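Supplementary notes for students who missed Thursday's class. We covered one full example, reproduced here. Read the sequence, then the structure, then the short commentary at the end.
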Amino acid sequence: MNSTGKLNQLALAVAIGSALVMAAGQAKAGAAAQATSSTNQNAGNGSKPKSAAKKGATSSTTPATTLSEIVVTGAPTFNGVKRVDASFSITTATLQQIKEANPVSIADLLKISPGVFAESSGGQTGANIEVAGFPSDSGAPFATFELEGMPLFPRWSYFEDAMMRLDDTIYRVELLQGGPSVLYGNGQPGLIANFRLRQGTPTPSGDVGLTLLSEGGERIDGFYGFPVGSSGWLASVGGFWRKSDGVRNPQFPADKGGQVTMTLSRDLDNGSIMFYARYLNDKNQFVTDTPIFNPAPGQFSPWPGFDPLTGTFGSKADQYQVWQTAPCFTNGCTPPGLDLNLANGRGGDLRIVGGTFFYDFGNGWTLSNNFQAMTGNINNIAYYSTGENPMPLSAFISSQESYYNLPAGLTPEVRYTTGGTPSMDEMISVQNPEFIRKHPKSIGDELHVSKELFDGIRSPSARISRHFPIGTTNTTAGTRCCRRSPIRRPSWST
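Structure (token representation):
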């Protein structure tokens, strides 16, 4: 592991560890103070300043399922609207409700919204998200992920759900489907998923959790909110770290990494202000098609030697790869290559900073401003199916000879990369390893100024937005053939 990777892991461990240590040290004092204070909030509902209604926070005495809760996603002002008054479809879930839904990934959580289906069998990231009424073939062109009302990236690509993870720093999600969604964020006509952050608390409080994963591995989550002296500012820090073999164990960590989030907020006499920062460094195995035996319509069974529920084409045998990037014409020369590690999978190394500001000037005039900037890397190295059915090794060699129009009479040489010669009758599956490098950058700002003209009727608000484009580098490897055994050893044909 290079020095940058070690520093990133160390930074995540220190940040989350600090939160846990502070939470443990203050737990007893925090519990006593909360028992005697009627103004303190529950740690799971974000901060509750005087302007709680303006911030869209839900009262700790009102269940999130009631129609009187305040929603801000899709609302024309920062004050939000009561759910019963909203003229559009919106689904909400608190931190506790998110845990009860037990989503396997952030994309899988979107299923709580009627008409949304997330096909998340590929792992933690890379889900295909379908929204009713908007046909799409793959990816998530009609779903936008937002953090505190700002799109994580303003233009669709294939990596939206790789840009954030669910953890205890999220106190609420609002899923807006259709309606005014096209007027806000990046003009999304389909689904907007807005994730709201937990903030600091007047009394030190927090939580910590350790999860032992059934597939092998562990995960630690933590959150800690506290006041910053007597200045009126509130701060919080939290996140998670996880290491897992995954449902499809590739003999190396399928999921490894974490996320840390910090906030700094304060109540004003007639408004509120909040700043936040988030760092994600997570690597996840990405799984595509697996072979299934389908001898007749409606009849399905495992392909002999391959478990469709746990099998994977990744293994220690092909974890480290070197892809030649330029020819080598002289004897004894070493061609330049690209060193790749299959364990890096499809993950993210992202930094996000942002802030929200709200102020009520009186006489019906209000101003709100959201700001967010994001930069980092989202790389993907994984096997992609070529669409060909498994075939005998001899048939594969014949197809390659025909495809490349090779002269007759050649004798093929086939060997395992780990040594040994396979049988020509051995069944193989042809896979295509791909490496996709993305370097997203975006910066956005939304400014809203409005005036209440009549009771419940406000003037249109001004909106200013600016975003930087993405830069993408794609690299694709050549065809490779693999054995059909559950953990297969790759072989090359020459």
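Commentary. Residues 3-36 form the longest helix (34 residues). Helices lie at 3-36, 52-55, 95-101, 393-403. If anything here is unclear, bring it to office hours.
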